[in-house]
Design brief:
Blueprint: H1 2-13, H2 21-28, H3 32-44, E1 48-51, E2 67-70, H4 73-80, H5 87-105, E3 110-116, E4 122-129, E5 134-140, H6 150-159, E6 165-170, E7 175-179, E8 182-188
Parallel strand pairs: 5-6, 6-8
Antiparallel strand pairs: 1-2, 3-4, 4-5, 7-8
Length: 192
């Protein structure tokens, strides 16, 4: 179905986005009912997976929508084709790759989440270790900078005692810094 392929391509360009039917309906110019049907089909056949939000304070954090990732990177690469060469699309694919890698490495006491404040500041991945009650925030930066991402600062204000280290993937930086007596590890994306 041509409409389904159009929707799937739009979905591929928005990998890691919040799953909101209105947004995808406007983006793909198809009815909400079709968006829901297509998402159900992709989920039923295991092509996309949902990642739930980490919410402890509903006044500050939003937990209305899940994010989605593809269960296999080949789906994205086929759908994006020439768009993959654009840096913005590579970041989306990299984020999806990171999701798949983190998910595969989780132990039973770990849970993978994402974090989003009502101000829309987002940390793509949080690994929560229930055994030690610790959180590992992980983000990807599109530019090389050792500046601490602002979202880490606000997250640290709320959950600092639970965070033992932060992790940042960048284009070409390898470094380790310390702030708030907590390690921030910067790694090149090619080191993954």
């Amino acid at each position: 179905d041509i409409l389904f392929m159009k929707f799937s391509t739009v979905l591929a360009t928005e990998t890691g986005s919040l799953l909101t039917w209105d947004y995808f309906s406007r983006l793909a110019t198809i009815p909400r009912r079709k968006v829901r049907l297509f998402l159900d089909v992709l989920e039923e056949y295991g092509m996309i997976e949902r990642l739930s939000p980490f919410v402890r304070d509903e006044k500050l954090e939003t937990g209305l929508h899940d994010r989605f990732y593809w269960s296999d990177l080949s789906y994205i690469c086929v759908l994006l084709w020439d768009l993959y060469l654009q840096w913005a699309m590579r970041i989306r694919v990299l984020e999806n790759f990171l999701y798949l890698e983190l998910k595969s490495l989780l132990s039973p006491e770990n849970t993978l989440w994402f974090y989003r404040k009502k101000s829309q500041a987002t940390i793509p991945f949080l690994i929560y270790d229930s055994l030690w009650d610790t959180i590992l925030p992980i983000t990807i930066l599109e530019r090389d900078t050792i500046a601490v991402p602002q979202v880490f600062r606000s997250f640290h204000d709320l959950y600092g005692p639970s965070v033992k280290r932060y992790m940042v993937f960048t284009h070409s930086l390898n470094d380790t810094r310390k702030i708030w007596d907590t390690e921030i590890i910067y790694r090149k994306c090619t080191d993954m």
